[in-house]
Amino acid sequence: MTSDLRKLVVTALRSIERADETTRQAPKSREGKKAIAGHFDPAVAWQLKKLALDRQTTVQALLEEALGDLFEKHHLMRV
């Protein structure tokens, strides 16, 4: 690949990356929110999903409830 062609390809790819970054937006429900993650045994993930299904709610809602209980236990404000 010639130097000029290589520069052209790099410029085009950078333009595509920038355009992709500006068009990618989080859903409104995630605005102002921060992701929290952890790595757990697959059985934990299965139980959490099953509990959400049994209670007709979401994993997100169960985690919010659990964190609220944890904060309360440690005398922190529920958020």
What is the compact description of this entry?
The chain has helices at 3-23, 42-54, 59-73. It is mainly α.
Give me some keywords for this one.
mainly alpha; 3 helices; 62% helix; elongated
Low-confidence stretches: none
Question: What structural class results from the helix and strand content?
Answer: mainly alpha
The coarse overall form would be: elongated
Distance between the termini: 57 Å
Count of β-strands: 0
SSE succession:
HHH
Count the DSSP helices: 3
Rounded average pLDDT: 88
Overview of this protein structure:
The protein is elongated, with a radius of gyration of 22 Å. It is 62% helix and 0% strand. The protein has a domain at 38-79. It has three helices and no strands. The model has no long low-confidence stretch (mean pLDDT 88). It has helices at 3-23, 42-54, 59-73. With 79 residues, the protein is mainly α.
Which helices and strands occur, and which strands form pairs?
Layout: H1 3-23, H2 42-54, H3 59-73
